[in-house]
Amino acid sequence: MSIGSLIVPPRRSLTAALAALTVVAGCTCAARTRPDDTKHVMGTPPRVRDIRVRLTTDQPILQIRVAGPYRMLVAGRVVDSRPSSDFVAVQPQGDGLRIGEQILSAASVDIVPNRTGDLYWRTKSETGWGPTRRLPGNLRLTVDSGGLTAINVVDLETYLVGVVAAELYPDFHREAFRAGAVTARTYALVQMSERTNDDYDVSASESSQVYIGIPDGPGGRAAAAAVRDTRGVVCTWRSPRGERIFSTYYSACCGGVTQSAAYWGQALDIAPLVGGIRCDYCRIAPAQAYRWKPVRVSKAEIMARLIARDSQYRILGRLRSVVPIERTPGGRLQRLRLTGTSGKVKEIRAEDFRLAVGSRVLRSTNCRIEDAGDWLVFADGKGFGHGVGLCQWGMQGQALAGRRAGQILAFYYPDTHLTRAY
Ligand SMILES: [Zn+2]
Predict the structure, then answer these.
(1) Which of 1, 9, 330, 404 has the highest local Cβ count within 10 Å?
(2) Tens-place pLDDT, residues 153-205
(3) Which pTM was predicted?
(4) How far is the CA of 212 from the centre of ligand 1 (A)?
(5) Alpha carbon of 335 to ligand 1 centroid (Å)
(6) Angle at alpha carbon of residue 77, lines to 74 and 83, rounded to 5°
(7) In angstroms, what is the span from residue 8 Cα to ligand 1's centroid?
(8) Where exactly are the structural domains of the chain?
């Protein structure tokens, strides 16, 4: 049975929804002044524009390969189209770019394969060239004082396959994949409506949603099926201003109760993101996600990581103590006070502290902090990720218990339903 059977018909006709969207699309100035995620009128035009995915930025070098015919465009003009069977290096060259032996004075170039999927790329790390990724759509390469930026311009539904395959385990249940596809689509559409004046809509990392280009294997096939089964379906809620899509946040494992988006300090205090939802479905998650063992990190290491993220923490000197000063109603750390050997004190949001320490080291802010001299111990840890919105392991637990994608989404995002946007 298709997910379409779970869709609650929109209260307005699709034509009315699309007409409303047209108004919003021409009105980005008003939209951008309001710092919340509730302003998006439901729906998108039947022909959604391609999404711009920032793959990487500030790179000194990367490599690309186009397996078949293509065009290299500068400001819409073809500057090269010679196929290459090998990878070629892309590097900044003055104010322009060097691609293989070719030097371009332009700061931006588009690589447009005749056939989608012929494009490959990889970046260099300290240990050598990273994994080769195959990309659908086109590639935009730009250079500025920070280095190279690579942006994949790709059809939205194709992009979603590369997200869902990256975000979920290949053996997750089909209904979990479908719920994941709707969540990823809704999130992406919100970003696309927010970022019209920016160079990109989403990044390919955890800061938006992880994207790996064209996936292969069982996970890729499951993701492609889920995206196809839910094509155009989004999660909406009935806001005081009408039917809206919203930022469908999700994280790996809530650890037992979901978190309010409002604790990020943003104006996200809307019904679907209010949090506080008891979720014992994620008990099936691996131990290091659901209930993790104490984690010890030296204060020196923490200080180095804080400074790497923001140099203002230098004023603390060495780190003396980290004390919680506020917790959320759900029991997570919300604000911390950092005291340094300089006698200076700084406050930090617990989620920012977690990301500085390392999102895979300190798996969630649902823990206690113990002072052990030169070390801090994070104990009684629960959950993995920020815990706002949908819980991915809980989604899998519910799917295994026989719940459908629409039911899973309505559980984690209260007062919402599925709507076909296109
Ligand atoms: Zn959960």
Answers:
(1) 330
(2) 999 999 999 999 999 999 999 999 999 999 999 999 999 999 999 999 999 99
(3) 0.85
(4) 25
(5) 23
(6) 80
(7) 25
(8) 3-48+157-281+387-420, 51-154, 295-379
